[in-house]
Design goal:
Layout: H1 11-18, H2 21-38, E1 42-48, E2 53-59, H3 62-71, H4 73-77
Length: 83
C-alpha cells in the first residue's frame, strides 16, 4: 500500500506571500488588463486587505455601466486577466 503524505502549510509564510508586493503587482496587472479590454470608463484598483492582496474593476462612468448592463463588457473581458 502507498503511504499517505501529509502536507503542513506554514501559515505565516502563506500569509506573507498572499500580502507580498509581488502578488499585489500581479493582481493590479490583471485588473488593469481586464479594465483595458472592457473599454472606456472602467477603473482598476488593487490593495492589500487584512488577509491578502485583492483587485477589482468597476464601472466608473455612466457609459461604462451601460456597456456592462447591455453588452456585459466586464464579464466578456475576464479572460484578459488570465494572462
Amino acid at each position: 500500500m502507498a503511504r499517505r503524505s501529509r502536507i503542513v502549510l506554514n501559515r505565516r509564510g502563506v500569509r506573507e506571500l498572499l500580502r507580498s508586493p509581488e502578488v499585489l503587482r500581479d493582481m493590479r496587472r490583471r485588473a488593469e488588463a481586464i479594465a483595458q479590454r472592457a473599454g472606456d470608463g472602467m477603473e482598476a484598483s488593487a490593495m492589500v486587505g487584512a488577509g491578502r492582496a485583492r483587485a477589482s474593476v468597476i464601472t466608473a462612468t455612466a457609459r461604462a455601466r451601460e456597456a456592462e448592463a447591455t453588452h456585459r463588457a466586464l464579464t466578456r473581458a475576464l479572460d484578459a486577466g488570465r494572462r
